[in-house]
Amino acid sequence: xxxxxxxxxxxxxxxxxxxxxxxxxxxxxxxxxxxxxxxxxxxxxxxxxxxxxxxxxxxxxxxxxxxxxxxxxxxxxxxxxxxxxxxxxxxxxxxxxxxxxxxxxxxxxx
Amino acid sequence: xxxxxxxxxxxxxxxxxxxxxxxxxxxxxxxxxxxxxxxxxxxxxxxxxxxxxxxxxxxxxxxxxxxxxxxxxxxxxxxxxxxxxxxxxxxxxxxxxxxxxxxxxxxxxxxxxxxxxxxx
Lengths: 110, 120
Hints:
A: mainly beta; globular; B: 120 residues; mainly beta
């Protein structure tokens, strides 16, 4: 099973919105509701931002939102802040008891 | 409060077997509703899911590493153990232990990670 496809980089100015895509197939993203997103700052463990495509854990700001259309999931960060600069990873259930991650996107706040 | 912490060797030789222990607190791994997973990240690279075990002893493993991985739990010690055989330098990575609610297939609590280097 290949990794999910994410753009290597994304950027935006403070206050703007940025959307990060995560493309898979109908055997993973397109076939299940189990898409999650993680934020990772340098030298730190990843942090869960979104699970089951659109759900946000308590404590995660509502500036972070998730969606899915067909085989592509998206993470939108609204009202960009300096602390949002980090790496972002998507993850999806891929059937047959398999989970796959995307290659990661480095978000730069200009 | 849920916490997880990984422990094990920081250096292993090629062909050796790696044994990592995840010691957790704040939950019990005795029901099917809760799982503990392992995820690794080579330096400068992406995350890779390795394995997951639920409280009812249901186990899931990455197909790409099947045959090399074993995941077990010791509920009396609140521990999950991951073993990986035939280690290779490409297995050099930070290994994370995680909490995973069933059946969401997501990881809501993470350990700090432990860096394992494979080198002769």
